[in-house]
Every structure is written in C-alpha cells, then in structure tokens.
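To: structure desk
From: M.T.
Subject: fold request, one chain
Message: Could you run this one when you get a chance? Sequence is below, nothing fancy, just the single chain.
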Amino acid sequence: MELKSDKVAARVDAPFWPCIGSAPQAGFTLIELAVVIFIMALMLTLAVPYTGVLRDARLKSAARQLAGRATFLYVQANAQKLVLQLNFDLKGNRYFVTWLDPYSAKPQLRPYKRPGGEPVTLPAGVRVRDVIIADGQGKRGAFIACSFYPQGFTDPAVIHLVSSFGSVMTLSLSPLTGRVKIIGGDVPAKRLIYAASAS
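Reply: Done. Structure tokens follow.
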C-alpha cells in the first residue's frame, strides 16, 4: 500500500513541461513555412499581370460594341436609303439611333426601332469622355449626333471612351468607308480626322 502512495506522490511532484524525447509538438517547421510563402508569392506574381487585363475588359468590350454598331449603321443607311444618326448622350452615358427619310416631303427624325437600333447604356466603370464630329467646324458637347448617309458616307468622328481606372480607348470613324479603327490610348481627334478625311 505504501508503495502505491509513493508512486502517486512522485507523479504529482513531476514537472509539467515536456521532456526531451517526448511526443512531437503540433505546428509548422521553418521549411514548411518557407514553402507555403514561396507558393503564395508565385501565385501572386502569376495573377497580378492579369488584373490589368480584366480591369480593362469592359472598356475593350464597350469599344468593340460601339464600333460594331457604327459599322452596322453605315451599311444599313446605304441599304435602306435612310439617314441614320448615332446619338451620344454624354450625361446619360448612353447612345441610341434615330432615322429620317431624306426623300419624304417633311423629313423628321424618329427612333430607330428595328434590330440594331436598341439604346445602349455603357457598363459601370466605362463612360464616353467626348465625341468630336468634323462637319466643317468640329462639334463638342453633351449631346452629339453622328450621321450615316444613304449615299455611302458618314460624318468623320472621333470617340474617346475612358474607364474608371483612367485607361482610354479611341475610336476613329472613316467618312468614306465607314470603318471604325479602335486604338488603345488617348489619340488627338484632329490628327485622326485629318487622316480619315485624306484616305
């Protein structure tokens, strides 16, 4: 009996810290931490270049959509023998299409309700900064219309789209061919209108 009580007393008096050679502690070694940090850094270096691409994806998509609409209106004006106008509402950040019959007794602008004439509001983070139409004087303003004529030409125009991150896309509309050139960056309107008119 006394032996048992001595063993119990010895256990109570034993120190509470682990001894050398006891069970391993839970946690990470220095090598494991270094590997995890290396993998995280590698993933970050691979992901960072693509954030800029994703960031400007809306701007590029809006520029392509606008260029497609302008090309479509150029073709339709010639095919339907109508004057079609691409109207830019800079305050509302949108554009829409109107039309008139130049051969009617009283030509009057009306909303273009056929396919391809739907109003378009630009996506969040993208806006029309300005639209410059070269009609002899060059117009700027909050509400601007670019006309497409049945004879197969259009007003020379330069449109600047800008993202909330400061990226700019420039669209240049050729008056003779109706082609729209999309250029990355902020290109001056004068240079593009002169080049488009000369070609």
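Reply (cont.): The CA atoms of residues 31 and 37 lie 10 Å apart. Let me know if you need anything else for the meeting.
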